[in-house]
Amino acid sequence: MGDASRRNFLARGGAAVGLLALAGCRGLPQPQWLQDLLRSSEGLTRRVQRSFAGGNSLAKEFTKADIAPVFRANGTRNPVNPAYQAMRANNFQDWRLEVNGLVEAPLSLSLEQLRAMPSRTQITRHDCVEGWSCIGEWKGTPLRLVLDAARPKPKAHYVMFYCADPMGETPDAPLYYESLDLIEAVHPQTILAYELNGQTLPLQHGAPIRLRAERQLGYKMAKYVMHIELVQDFAHIRGGRGGYWEDHGYNWYAGI
Fold it and tell me: Cα torsion at 178, 168, 69, 126 (round to 10°)?
């Protein structure tokens, strides 16, 4: 059985178990939308590629002594996007995170509002598909809190992340995008990071915020995030595979 077939087989038997386990993770109170998802047979059996570890397993966390002296940057370092550069010049005072799609309460959050929400700090290892790894300390807002505020509708199965970085040398090149399923999106270690190693998130690492989903390979952790959309599926979005690199042949499931 190939990797994809094995993951699909495990998903049918393990997705429901993983999500139910997540319901009790760290004793967090469950919002109504998540309770509805737990009760939804459609939500529990949706076609997502899950690892056998389950919904609430944690990526390994490290100590400050393990932090790399320099955290290596990957992908875009400085988006050739006029709108982004204008916001950068204004210290991101005009930046907004738009959250919409299949939600009851669409959001438009400033960086100040995002930073005012409860935060999580984690020291984790970034594993790149190119074969290198690096350990850093990330601080940010748990994505689950943002989703709680937006209140996903029952048909919402995936979270799309649309970014400011063109994947080319010109501003009109396709913009980077990625996706997670809701199980990964509400995981405790999935955060919208605005600090790296105790400092404001640097430009080359995705300022003002980037996604950190610590159980995934690096290409899933979108930088320069501008817009979050909740959808039932992503077959109609771009190349239909759930992400820029996925549209170019990478696996959608990138668990480590």
Answer: 20
* pLDDT tens by residue, 132-162: 999 999 999 999 999 999 999 999 999 999 9
Question: Where does the chain have alpha helices with state H?
Answer: 3-23, 32-39, 41-45, 82-89, 111-116, 143-150, 182-185
Q: How many residues are given for the chain?
A: 256
Note the pLDDT tens digit of each residue in 165-197. Answer: 999 989 999 999 999 999 999 999 999 999 999
CATH class as words, domain 55-248: alpha beta
pTM equals 0.82
Residue whose entry in the numeric block shows the structure tokens 């955290």? 71
The residue behind tokens 């009760």 is 39
Domain ranges of the chain: 55-248
| Dihedral sign, Cα of residue 42, residue 143, residue 49, residue 38 | negative
